[in-house]
């Protein structure tokens, strides 16, 4: 039987460096959010947005703990996943418009029964917002929100974990206008 996977897109950030809502930023004629949805929707059983404003037909889950960033979003997704019987939560940020189309499937291949988290990795290191998180009864324990605690710390506590290598170009996190301009120039050259 195939595992049930909840897809969860981090979409509730304040976009301070980007200076506007990243979910509506355009790349190749589509919003960042549309690109991420396209990459995820065929690989998950249900797709939700973690924070942000309603974007029908997608369900928006508000963070259980305000102002806690991606870790708060993960905790919210895990709570939802446990309540509705999912086996895994696949996460990705809304500002990664080049996300590979088969990233969830590729990560699931590394998910042996002992593995708790599969994290994306590039030549730049771990990309903890792009990950596959096992849902168990004790799943919330490693994701306790504390001052200075991060997704990277949650991964380290959720041992054993695995990583899957991706091209850094596919996991570009577009955090500001210069990064978006650079991405558009690169796309124009290809």
What would a concise description of this structure say?
The protein has 190 residues and is of the alpha/beta class.
Could you describe the 3D structure shown?
With 190 residues, this protein is an alpha/beta fold. It has a single domain, classed as Spore Coat Polysaccharide Biosynthesis Protein SpsA, Chain A (Alpha-Beta Complex), CATH 3.90.550. The protein has five helices and nine strands; from the N terminus they run βββαββαβαββαβα. It has helices at residues 32-41, 69-83, 103-108, 151-157, 177-189, and strands at 5-10, 26-27, 30-31, 46-50, 59-61, 88-93, 117-122, 125-134, 161-165. The strands form two sheets. It has a seven-stranded mixed beta sheet with strand order 5-4-1-6-8-7-9, with helices on both faces. A two-stranded antiparallel sheet has the order 2-3. The chain is globular. It starts with a strand and ends with a helix. The mean pLDDT is 81.
Keywords:
two-stranded antiparallel ribbon, Spore Coat Polysaccharide Biosynthesis Protein SpsA, Chain A, 27% helix, 9 strands, 190 residues, alpha/beta, seven-stranded mixed sheet, 24% strand
């Amino acid at each position: 039987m195939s595992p049930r996977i909840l897809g969860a897109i981090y979409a509730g950030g304040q976009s301070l460096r980007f200076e506007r809502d990243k979910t509506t930023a355009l790349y190749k004629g589509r919003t960042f959010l549309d690109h991420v949805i396209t990459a995820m929707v065929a690989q998950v059983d249900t797709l939700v947005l973690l924070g942000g404003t309603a974007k029908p037909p997608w369900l928006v889950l508000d963070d259980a703990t305000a102002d806690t960033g991606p870790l708060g979003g993960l905790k919210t997704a895990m709570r939802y996943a446990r309540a509705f019987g999912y086996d895994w939560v696949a996460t990705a940020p809304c500002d990664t418009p080049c996300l590979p189309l088969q990233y969830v499937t590729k990560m699931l291949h590394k998910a042996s029964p002992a593995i708790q988290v599969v994290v994306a990795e590039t030549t730049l290191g771990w990309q903890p917002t792009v990950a596959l998180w096992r849902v168990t009864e004790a799943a919330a324990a490693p994701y306790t929100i504390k001052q200075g605690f991060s997704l990277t710390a949650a991964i380290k506590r959720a041992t054993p974990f695995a990583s899957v290598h991706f091209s850094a170009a596919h996991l570009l996190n577009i955090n500001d206008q210069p990064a978006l301009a650079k991405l558009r120039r690169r796309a124009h050259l290809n």
